[in-house]
Design a protein that fits this description.
Blueprint lengths: L3 H7 L6 E4 L3 E5 L7 E7 L14 H17 L6 E4 L3 H4 L8 E5 L9
Antiparallel strand pairs: 1-2, 2-3, 3-5, 4-5
Bound molecules: guanosine-5'-monophosphate and zinc ion (ZN).
């Protein structure tokens, strides 16, 4: 499958990996929007959040616990943001489900 994030997970395309387990892979975003900006992606190819089903409930809970652990390791005691851009109107540019984790500065709300 011609998927950028599948290639990153397999190592075919290099990435700055920060964490990996049986379910997820996490790596630094190539175009960081905050002092800390990494992506958590399921190893399973799921196109978007709109493609999730009942079988993915444990996986998504796991993503949030991995985010919490990695943010603690990054020293983000004042907080952080977890973002999922879903499909065209949500601003998704890579069609493999991923969660942005941003921190290290005060983040604006609402987004544009
Ligand atoms: P989206 O716009 O789909 O929510 O987020 C895709 C993210 O992937 C963007 O923040 C973009 O900077 C990041 N990205 C795109 N290509 C690469 C790449 O080759 N390596 C890394 N590390 N990040 C990438
Ligand atoms: Zn993929």
């Amino acid at each position: 499958m011609d998927c950028l994030f599948c290639k990153i997970i397999s190592g075919e395309i290099p990435s700055d990996k920060i964490y990996e387990d049986e379910l997820v892979y996490a790596f630094k975003d190539i175009d960081p929007q905050a002092p800390v900006h990494f992506l958590i992606v399921p190893k399973e190819h799921i196109a978007s959040a709109d493609d999730l089903d009942e079988s993915h409930k444990e996986l998504i809970g796991h993503v949030f616990l991995v985010a919490q652990k990695l943010c603690a390791e990054a020293g983000l005691t004042k907080g952080y943001r977890i973002v999922n851009n879903c499909k065209e109107d949500g601003g998704q540019s890579v069609d493999h489900l991923h969660f942005h984790v941003l921190g290290g500065r005060s983040l604006n709300w609402p987004p544009g």
